[in-house]
Amino acid sequence: MIPPPTPKLLLLRAAGKASEISWRLTDCTIYVTLEPCPMCAGAITMSRVSRLVFGAWNDEYGASGSRWDLVRDQRLNHQVEVIPWNYGTVNVRLW
Ligand SMILES: [Zn+2]
Hints:
By secondary structure, the chain is of the alpha/beta class.
């Protein structure tokens, strides 16, 4: 079974299609309410988004600086600037 795309994945897909230059979203900033999970953080990184702004930490599934930090992993070929607005912490159950 293929998991359904999250809003962040749909946004990246739409932005990549809208760009007439490249699928790479270099010089783009993504604004989201909740710190991305590993799946979304991976998609953000692979889409070459330059900057990530989010409103709340996700202690349970966050992969952009809390539980994991995939978007700034130096072993990958792209790192994302992270700007947490730090309005709080949300514990989210995905399933
Ligand atoms: Zn996600």
